[in-house]
Amino acid sequence: MSTTDTPQTSPHHDVVIVGGGPTGCAVGVFTARYGLDTIIFNRGRSSIQRCAYLENYLGFPAGVDIETLYGLMHDHAEEAGCEIIPDLIESVERPDDGRGFLVTPQEGDPITARRVVAATRYDGEYMRGLDDDAAMFETYEHDGETHEHFDGEYAAHDGSTPVEGLYVASPSTEDKQALMAAGRGARVGLRVVEDTRQTRGYPEAVADHYDWMRQASELDDEWGDRDRWREWFDDRLPSDHDLDEERRVELRERDIDRSLETYLSDEEIKRRRVHGQQRLLEHIDDELILEAARDIESERQSTEVSN
């Protein structure tokens, strides 16, 4: 495996994502929301940018233009905590100490990351330095010449690969529609979170992560009792876990805190609803907003007169 001369220090970032299309942004939303320091590099040739107008992306009844979709995706990723850098990636390699990855962009300074997610559909050349046995690339003949391309089936269904810490969300042989690509990105993002939890000490049986906000009114007496959460966590632990008592309690209490934070009061739900719609307005043309406001005001006045 290729290495390069770099200081033997801990990686500076938790996750680097190469590609800022629907796949990469979906990965980033899940990793950043969990609290992982996430960077998205975005300046490559995204397949969706070749689309004239997108009409089958869920949530847009009349379709959506690509510029607006990209604005919404990047805004969402940044709101979740991602940093988006407009640069291409030249290479991803192992540093000399073998800890994480050295990510070298075309224009900026190299950075280090614990995990890397490839989310670019067309080009995997930047990962060439990680390909020990050429399993990452396929060869084929065309017009008497031998060519290579990235193997779309190199990664597992959840994006994990034989290279520890490397995930491939795209290219994939399955996810050829933008909506499917976003779904794959979400799946890979959750895999990254679960692997992170395992490296932080959570046994596999309790390392799964479910990103879901709940209504506090649904927190009944049973689950409002912290001891019930403790029982649930302990019941899922395998009998052969190697956690000492102090570490087991620490991880359990941290996980319970995280779970309880997902329950939102009615007031918080209302606040987030207003905030969410305000953020959507930032992506709508001002003239359309003003036109809609005039129509609403006209309808209101008509209703007052008729009453």
From TrEMBL:
Which Gene3D superfamilies does this chain map to? FAD/NAD(P)-binding domain
- Keywords annotated in UniProt: Flavoprotein, Oxidoreductase
Could you cite one Gene Ontology molecular function of this protein? oxidoreductase activity
Recorded hits in InterPro entries, A to Z, give: FAD/NAD-bd_sf (IPR036188), Ferredoxin-NADP_redctase_2 (IPR050097)
What domain of life does the native source organism fall in?
Answer: Archaea
UniProt keyword Oxidoreductase, yes or no? yes
Q: Signal sequence: where?
A: none
Query: Could you identify this protein by its name?
Result: Pyridine nucleotide-disulphide oxidoreductase
